[in-house]
Amino acid sequence: MVTARKIACDCPARILHDSAVFFTSQENNVSFENLNLHPLILKAIIDSGYTSPTPIQEKAIPELLAGHDVMASAQTGTGKTAAFMLPALHRLATPSRTHSRGPRVLVLTPTRELALQVSSAAAKYGKHLPRVRVVSILGGMPYPLQNKLLSQPVDILVATPGRLIDHIQRGRIDFSRLEMLVLDEADRMLDMGFIDDVASIAAATPESRQTLLFSATLDSEIENIGTQLLNAPRRIQVASQKARLDNIEQRLHYVDDVSHKNRLLDHLLRDITLKQAIVFTATKRDADTLADSLSAQGHEAAALHGDMSQRDRNRTLTQLRHGGLRVLVATDVAARGIDVAGITHVINFDLPKFAEDYVHRIGRTGRAGASGIAVSFASGKDNVSLKKIEHFTGQRIASHVIPGLEPRFKPRAGGSGMPRNTPNVAHKRSRSWSPDNQRHVPAAGSARGDWGDSRGRSFSANRTDARGNTVTGNRSSPFGNGRADTYFRSK
Ligand code: AMP
Questions:
Q1: Secondary structure (3-state) at 79
Q2: 247, 319, 322, 224: which is closest to 78 by C-alpha?
Q3: φ and ψ of 80, to 5 deg
Q4: pLDDT category, 353, cuts 50, 70, 90?
Q5: pLDDT per residue as tens digits for the range 398-424
Q6: Which letter, b or e, does each residue of 218-256 get, where b requires 16 or more Cβ atoms within 10 Å of its Cβ?
Q7: 5 Cα nearest atom in ligand 1
Q8: Which residues contact 16 (CB under 8 A, 6 or more apart)?
Q9: Pocket of ligand 1 (CB under 6 A)
Q10: Among candidates 60, 81, 82, which has minimal Cα distance to 16?
């Protein structure tokens, strides 16, 4: 039986047509049938159990079908993949007039995981269309297999920028019939130092292409890229970070040391309301060590990080998807883009270095309209990171204690620096710690936060990437040793 799912997001979508601004919302009750998508694509949407378009789909699909370039701010979890993939497939339903074997649609993504997700979305939504051939080109896979894949006709090419540029430079890709270029999670590609590669790839494609840019935020750097690569784009904004987090209850546990973290984690994992969890650690080695120790304690746990081969990563993710794994211990990059509905909890064993990663981490729970719980452990050393996170999300994280596992550590008074007048928050949650202002909860209480709404980016640093370019955002390369490619036919 197909169960209809709907993303809970009643946030307004904003479209900026050049200088004009329109505010619209889901009250319009647009249905997929009204969007004029090809009937075989509609059939696949019905098979997927979607009952109505999400705000980003409702706004982006008509603009894309009308042939406009689009710049959209939308997070993962808003249905952004279908927002670009459905119009892309709609194009493919009409044969190309150019005789070539090259891709008609190119999607660039920052990570392998996201590329794999986009590829499976293409297969899912294109399954009733005849002969849609989807190829993923990611780093790490032997060149001969990729060369073979690229020598055959390709309709949709999903790639991470680094390896794709190698193939372009070797003259292995014919872009003469390319109609659509999608930059997915452009902000992340910028942070990772891929933006020069993205610009070179765009330069290798026909100017007549339709270009789409999706990003978590449309800040000035992204606007700049948009101005260079897009032609009179329609701008669409949906689902702010805050709106995306509203279905996720965030909790903070102050901790004394690693052994305290381990005891808290063991306690949380024994909660029967926890169906599946992702536990984030700071390093790959910590992910391995923690996964081993959890397995030894009897938890169904496994690690996921960038040093694992793609085959092992895929195997672990498949296990997670099929419910064969209850606890995934992961690093940021490896876990990015994971979309598994059963994840009820995200646990930050170590806080992320970057506030933005906190949002990506906790977004692994509360998928497709479900609610989720995000628990973070913080010690005295984490005060600055905590402040950055709370500034970035505009939300204070309520601190909780578990009876018997109280911290000896007393966090410094003074709060996170969040505005005192944050609605519904300041009067309830003072960051100055005392046993009285912490919530005592059983492992999975249902206390839900009321969130403030100010937010701002609190970090930005320059660095030099592996290619010697200076890039913004102090990120390390997303790629570990093992890289792999995937390929499948949708029919
Ligand atoms: P994305 O933002 O593309 O990562 O999508 C998040 C999740 O929403 C995925 O699991 C999709 O299958 C699901 N999804 C996409 N569009 C819809 C829709 N219109 N109704 C319900 N679920 C959707």
A1: coil
A2: 247
A3: -65, -30
A4: confident
A5: 999 999 999 997 775 544 444 332 323
A6: beebbeebbeebbeebbbbbbbbbbbbbbbbbbbbbbbe
A7: 21
A8: 22, 234, 235, 236, 237
A9: 5-7, 50, 53-54, 57, 76-82, 339, 368
A10: 60
**Ligand 1 atom nearest to 53, measured from its CA:** 19
d(C-alpha 346, C-alpha 159), whole Å: 28
For residue 70, the cross-strand partners are: 212, 234
* 408-412: long-range pairs with CB below 8 Å, 24+: 408/256, 409/254, 409/255, 409/256, 409/379, 409/380, 410/434, 411/254, 411/378, 411/380, 411/383, 412/380, 412/383
Tokens, residue 199? 């610009």
Q: Whose CA is nearest to atom 5 of ligand 1?
A: 79
- For atom 15 of ligand 1, the residue with the nearest CA is 79
- Give the Å distance between the CA of 339 and the centre of ligand 1: 9
Structural domains for the chain: 61-239+483-490 (3.40.50.300), 242-399 (3.40.50.300)
Distance from Cα 395 to the centre of ligand 1, integer Å: 25
Strand partners, 22: 15
Q: 205: CA distance to ligand 1 center in Å? A: 29
pLDDT at residue 246 tops 60: yes
Tokens matching residue 315: 């195997």
How far apart CA 128 and CA 43 sit, in angstroms, is 7
∠ Cα 322 293 360 (to 5°): 55
Left (φ > 0), alpha (ψ -120 to 50) or beta: where does 368 sit? left
d(C-alpha 222, C-alpha 216), whole Å: 10
Atom of ligand 1 nearest to the CA of 75: 2
Could you give the CA distance from residue 129 to residue 50 in angstroms, rounded to a whole number? 18
What pLDDT digit, counting tens, does each position of 363-380 carry?
888 866 677 899 999 998
More confident residue, 24 or 357: 357
Residue 285 token pair: 């080695």
Q: If we measure between CA atoms, which residue out of 238, 239, 246 comes closest to residue 452?
A: 246
